[in-house]
Amino acid sequence: MRAQVMAIILAMAVLLGTAAAQQLPGRSGAMNLTSSAFPHNGAIPKKHTCDGGDASPPLSWSGVPPEAKSLVLVVDDPDAPDPAAPKMTWVHWVLYNLPPSSGGLAESVKALPAGTAEGINDWQRTGYGGPCPPVGRHRYFHKLYALDTVIQGLSRPDKAAIEKAMQGHVIARAELVGTYQR
């Protein structure tokens, strides 16, 4: 019965074109995103920040739906510039068209999986830009989306352009949050 209800909810969300197609944590078949560098809601090690080597953290994922055609990874900080009075969300990394079978990214990844494309971050460049908060402890959301399509026709897109292209195509989502304070 539970599987039938989940199938109906997923089908309705896909038909309606909403992000409500998320698979919820703790449910059978949920997509998961983890890092061997830090636990969910744990501190991000200095080497993955602007105060260290600015190396991208190792990321692993599982439970990608078999119907997924591509994945999108967005890393952002909703606490900028000050967690006590946030004014914007700072984008640290945007990757799209990751192959669903890729399984993750190595630490300090240099060669992205075949077919992966990069969007621009808020430093107006591609690639990973680690945490570099001016004040306070910030949260860094690593968001992985499974899509029922491959994103086409974008040239150096920012997060907003990727989110627009994803509309109506998200079939599952996973999130990993890390924190950092200088």
Report a brief summary of the structure.
The protein has 182 residues and is an alpha+beta fold.
Give structural notes:
The chain has one domain (2-180): Alpha-Beta Complex (Phosphatidylethanolamine-binding Protein), CATH 3.90.280.10. It is 13% helix and 31% strand. The chain has two helices and nine strands; from the N terminus they run αββββββββαβ. The strands form two sheets. A six-stranded mixed β-sheet has the order 2-9-8-4-5-7, with helices on one face. The protein has a three-stranded antiparallel β-sheet with strand order 1-3-6, with no helix packed on it. The chain is globular, with a radius of gyration of 16 Å. Residues 1-28 have low confidence and may be disordered.
CATH arch. level architecture: Alpha-Beta Complex
Structural class: alpha+beta
Number of helices: 2
Distance between the terminal alpha carbons, to the nearest Å?
49 Å
Contiguous uncertain segments of 5+ residues: 1-28
* Radius of gyration from CA coordinates: 16 Å
Could you list some keywords that capture this structure?
182 residues; alpha+beta; Phosphatidylethanolamine-binding Protein; three-stranded antiparallel beta sheet; disordered N terminus
